[in-house]
Design goal:
GO molecular function, one term: nucleic acid binding
Oligomer: single chain
Helix content: 25-40%
Structural class: alpha+beta
Radius of gyration: 13 Å
Strand content: 25-35%
Strand order of the largest sheet: 4-1-2-3-5
Distance between the termini: 17 Å
Organism: Brassica carinata (Ethiopian mustard)
Protein name: RNase H type-1 domain-containing protein
Number of strands: 5
Length: 115
């Protein structure tokens, strides 16, 4: 299992959004989650909060990895995180599969798993 983590930060409001998406070796989505953080003073702090939160959320799962990838290969996690600050979606959740509104992007990323 591979976990992608995304973070988005709003300087004016000091809000940030975080997301993770967990996929198997074929790119199929197992779970995803979204969360809002308030009081983040920088994008770096936002990214660190997202990473810590995702590690805490996934600690009980086995056989998963977290790796640094270029932004282009992390599009889905970034879009979920951006939805927190751009869409005022402050409700946190964990869900199976991926969000329906991102199905085309999820399929595209899944097709590039080995790329």
């Amino acid at each position: 299992m591979k976990c992608n983590v995304g973070a988005a930060w709003s300087q004016g409001a000091w809000n940030s959004g975080a997301a993770w998406i967990l996929r198997d070796h074929r790119g199929r989505t197992s779970h995803h989650s979204r969360r809002a953080f308030s009081g983040c003073l920088s994008s770096c702090e936002s990214e660190l909060q997202a990473l810590l939160w995702s590690l805490q959320a996934l600690k009980d799962l086995r056989d998963w990895s977290l790796e640094h990838v270029v932004t282009e290969r992390n599009r889905v996690a970034m879009l979920i995180a951006k939805s927190v600050i751009n869409g005022n979606r402050f409700q946190s959740y964990v869900a199976t599969g991926g969000p329906l509104w991102l199905n085309p992007a999820i399929r595209e990323e899944a097709s590039n798993v080995d790329a």
